[in-house]
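wait is this the right file?? whatever heres the structure
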């Protein structure tokens, strides 16, 4: 299947506003046909250009490459050079013909009667005679009137002219090629303006969504039943948490949003963070992972394990999924636009025999300190550490704005038991453990901190309770804190029974 058909089918899978901003691939193909016709009318068909055209950088080639070049071209130099000049607000492709004496045939001591005099130079150009006369003006016309009117057998114009009267170079603007690059660059500039607006709209929606989630996932402190603890009014041994009752009366979806964000981080939809794979994922992998994440959410909600009690939360969840879908569509659009641009530039070089076009900039790639920076589209992308794709930038904005709204359980877990570090004990070395794990270390007589090996374990007492963090955990993790307190009380009771020599594996009838 031709790429133009594949390109059209891929665009149909995208939203209408993205399709309207896409590059007109078929229109550019028609302009390429016009370029070929224009070059052929000038006598510079692709076959001729393959023989005489050299890029401006040919002079900087390696010596080995120059040695392997065609002997005729190596001695004759660059007869025709393809270049792009900046004219006003657009790029003007043109051909530069060097009119010099480098193409003189070798002469002998006895000059033949048919050879030109030493004051004249034989210039061989694959350009029609009338175009040369029109381009160079009346001075060339005077020389042409005294020259042989018949063309050479090979079809090229052989003109005997005085090198002192001719300009050093002849510049031929390519009208159709100018239209090609103007159409392509205008499409990319229009796309860049569109993406700037979409990025602003995305960030605005993200700010509103963060406020909605913050309001829907309120902690227990928003309820009048929440009572903080203090070292001046509370005994650490008598702390209790009525988490489940608070979560019901406060009408908060805090725990549900924590589970949603946990699933989202585990999905690693757009960017891998695991040791096996790190970096931006390809479009197919991201689409598969986003579909799996959405399906998991629907399945858990259908079973009742995830339940959003507030209407505000349900609306926010739909917005959250829509933002992720937009990022995926943007990734698809970025991929298909880069591929279309690369292929049309390659087709331009192949059909016209003109060198590969210069670097064109992509509106999908930005630098952190500038919105005007871009990435090359005319060849495979090589992203350095200073550039960032727009889709990845939006992913980072999404995760950095929404995920911190709900504190993550792993950030407040005990490194020994890996559960919530409630009641938190902060040693003098600043490391944190739950009270049960610290009591077990002290009973075993271990004085060294498990993390830094400082001798701070045996000296810990009630003064090491981190009251601020205790209130924070009670506020944001009410269910986990209550569960951990119940577990601690059960373990403490079992230890007391063991110390009394009683078996606690089952019921005992007296």
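ok assuming it is, sequence goes like this
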């Amino acid at each position: 299947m031709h790429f133009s058909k594949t390109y059209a089918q891929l665009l149909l899978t995208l939203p209408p506003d993205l399709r309207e901003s896409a590059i007109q691939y078929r229109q550019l193909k028609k302009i390429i046909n016009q370029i070929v016709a224009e070059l052929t009318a000038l006598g510079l068909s692709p076959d001729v250009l393959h023989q005489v055209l050299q890029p401006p950088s040919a002079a900087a080639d390696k010596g080995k490459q120059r040695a392997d070049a065609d002997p005729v071209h190596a001695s004759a130099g660059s007869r025709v050079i393809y270049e792009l000049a900046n004219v006003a607000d657009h790029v003007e492709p043109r051909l530069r013909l060097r009119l010099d004496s480098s193409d003189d045939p070798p002469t002998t001591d006895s000059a033949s009667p048919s050879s030109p005099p030493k004051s004249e130079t034989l210039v061989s150009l694959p350009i029609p005679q009338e175009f040369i006369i029109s381009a160079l003006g009346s001075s060339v016309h005077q020389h042409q009137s005294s020259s042989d009117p018949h063309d050479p057998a090979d079809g090229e114009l052989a003109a005997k002219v005085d090198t002192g009267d001719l300009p050093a170079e002849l510049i031929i603007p390519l009208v159709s090629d100018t239209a090609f690059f103007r159409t392509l660059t205008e499409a990319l500039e229009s796309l860049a303006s569109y993406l700037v607006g979409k990025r602003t709209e995305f960030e605005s929606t993200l700010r509103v969504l963060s406020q909605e989630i913050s309001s829907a996932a309120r902690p227990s402190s928003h309820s009048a039943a929440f009572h903080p603890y203090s070292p001046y009014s509370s005994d650490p041994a008598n702390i209790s948490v009525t988490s489940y009752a608070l979560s019901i009366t406060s009408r908060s979806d805090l725990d549900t949003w924590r589970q949603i964000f946990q699933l989202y981080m585990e999905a690693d939809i757009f960017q891998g963070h695991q040791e096996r794979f790190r970096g931006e994922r390809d479009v197919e992998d991201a689409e598969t992972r986003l579909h799996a994440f959405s399906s998991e959410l629907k399945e858990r909600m259908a079973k009742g394990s995830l339940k959003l009690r507030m209407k505000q939360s349900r609306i926010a969840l739909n917005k959250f999924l829509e933002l992720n879908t937009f990022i995926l569509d943007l990734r698809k659009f970025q991929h298909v636009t880069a591929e279309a641009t690369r292929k049309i530039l390659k087709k331009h070089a192949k059909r016209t025999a003109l060198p590969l076009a210069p670097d064109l900039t992509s509106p999908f790639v930005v630098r952190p300190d500038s919105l005007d920076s871009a990435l090359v589209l005319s060849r495979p992308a090589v992203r350095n550490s200073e550039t960032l794709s727009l889709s990845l930038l939006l992913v980072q904005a999404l995760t950095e704005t929404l995920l911190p709204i709900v504190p993550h359980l792993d950030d407040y877990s005990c490194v020994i038991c890996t559960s919530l570090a409630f009641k938190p004990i902060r040693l003098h070395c600043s490391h944190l453990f739950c009270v049960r794990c610290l009591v077990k270390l002290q009973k075993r007589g271990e004085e060294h901190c498990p993390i830094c090996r400082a001798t701070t374990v045996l000296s810990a007492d009630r003064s090491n309770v981190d009251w601020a963090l205790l209130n924070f955990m009670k506020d944001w993790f009410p269910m986990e804190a209550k569960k951990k307190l119940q577990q601690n009380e059960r373990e403490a009771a079992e230890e007391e029974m063991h110390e009394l020599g009683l078996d606690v594996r089952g019921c005992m009838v007296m």
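The longest strand covers residues 90-98. so i think its the right one actually
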